[in-house]
Amino acid sequence: MPNTSGVTRYSIDFRTVHLDDVLDRRGAPNVDSECTGTTMRDYLRMNDLTQIPDEVVQTYDAGSSPQGQLVYRPQG
Questions:
Q1: CA–CA separation, 13 and 64 (whole Å)
Q2: Residue among 50, 51, 26, 27 nearest 39 (CA)
Q3: 36 near 60, Cβ under 8 Å?
Q4: Could you please report the per-residue DSSP string of 2-61?
């Protein structure tokens, strides 16, 4: 939405993931986005600021799935 107020607007966005959900590829369906790639490399563990291991993140990179793209498929 355009900012027509004449005043600077700030926005803060917090995103979290649980490593077990990442490893098990669990998550909410994302049916309205056509994003490619991943922002998983941006996440840091709160207690020591380590990144998600790259071998795990690579499974979320565009084209890394057997089908050539990542698609969320709910279980059951």
A1: 27
A2: 51
A3: no
A4: ---SSS-----------HHHHHHT------S----S--GGG-B-TTT-PBPPHHHHGGGS
Please give the DSSP secondary-structure letter assigned to residue 69.
Answer: S
DSSP state of 62: T
Give Cβ neighbours of residue 52 (< 8 Å, ≥ 6 apart).
Answer: 17, 19, 22, 40, 41, 43
pTM: 0.54
Q: Which amino acid is at 3?
A: N
| Digit-coded pLDDT (tens) for 5-51 | 999 988 888 888 899 998 888 887 777 777 777 888 889 998 999 99
Provide the sign of the torsion angle of the four alpha carbons 31, 60, 41, 47, taken in this order: positive
